[in-house]
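Why do we bother with a discrete structure alphabet at all? Because it lets us treat a fold like text: something you can write down, compare, and reason about line by line. To make this less abstract, here is a complete entry for Magnesium transporter MgtE. Read it the way you would read a sentence in a foreign language you are learning: slowly, and without expecting to understand everything at once.
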Amino acid sequence: MRQKVVDITNRPTDSDPIKIAAELNRLEPKKRARTLQQMPTEMIDAVFWQLEPEDQAVVLDNVPHDQVIRLLESMDPDDRVHLFQAMPADLISRLMTQLSPRERHCTELLLAYPKETAGRIMTPEFIRLKPGMTVSDGLAEVRRHRDKAETIYVLPVSDDAMRLVGVVELEDLVLAEPDERIQKLIREPQYSVSAWDDQEVTARLIQAADLFAVPVVEKDNRLVGLVTVDDAMDVLQSEETEDIARAGATEPIGRAYFSVSPVRLVRSRIVWLSLLALAGTLTVNVLSAFETTLEAVVSLALFIPLLIGIGGNTGAQSATTIVRAMATEEIHTGDLLRVLLREGLVGLILGALLGIIAFLVVSVIFDRDIALIVTLTLIIICTLASLVGSSMPLFARIVGVDPAVVSAPVVTTVVDATGLLVYFLIAATVLGL
């Protein structure tokens, strides 16, 4: 089926670059590049910056070379590095040689730091003030270098050796007396991060402390850049997207949905589905082991979907809650025992409440023995599911695995098998089988 190219260049109501970028993401790569080229130059730049790095790379594959260089030159260094991470190494090397010396230097500086570090997302373009400057001198410095800095709202203060002294915000600078010293305007408490700190940790600091930007330092507290709030938001969005994808037993695709081929969508899902299918054989083995029990009391089979459904959902609820709390640093690995006690109690209460309801209903339709089996199973399975769901993400963090990887789908599969085992063991005990 042919895809309609939306003429967004002649629609005055769609002049917002964010809306245009969203519309472009619905087009095929070549049509996306062709549509982008029809726009005015300023709009091209604004829209291009709104695309994800992988989609930017696809656009650059389909536009003239001179436009590629112009777009690269117009980007902030940290955004350019994000784009380069989505490109082949040989292409990056060729493009780097064609950048202006200043932009090439800034880009090489960021690429020198490992991926997922604060150094990779910082901007090396900032306005630096000195402690002995007056407010008047500081404002003059801002005016003189405003076009070269990514942000003017946060102004790091350092000595002659570039050692960080503190931070002054533009608001304080504007409101202060002209002859007042910069040293007296430094804000407390002072925050900074190492260039080798994890990106997510840095982003969480900016979020928690309500910062516009945080200074980045190397050894000896030497100032090398700033991580701004917009980059922090991008990191958090990326991390949350990744967690959501893995919680649903799939790999993040990292691009707009219509920008990804069906083959890539299959690749992002097939591995996890295969692993879960393999793990699901545990449930089959449990059913096979208790085949005699099922034949003796056929009515037991009627409650299997109910029990594994409740157990799986209880475990998934617990896992989702803990993964989220870990992502926001509310829970640490040292809290394992506290979490297990807390979630175990929650699971016990949930199981007891559901068990009471089940006993009243099942005893009316079946006999009391079946009602007792279902009730006891619900109590145990809810407690067990809460313990499994809360412990697996914490154990994953301890061994260095992403907690989202062992969240809802994995927990559900494990609880299904163990829940059935509990169910049949209780049935065999109560019924004397």
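What the structure line is telling us, in plain words: The chain has three domains: 8-112, 135-242, 263-431. The two ends are 61 Å apart (CA to CA).
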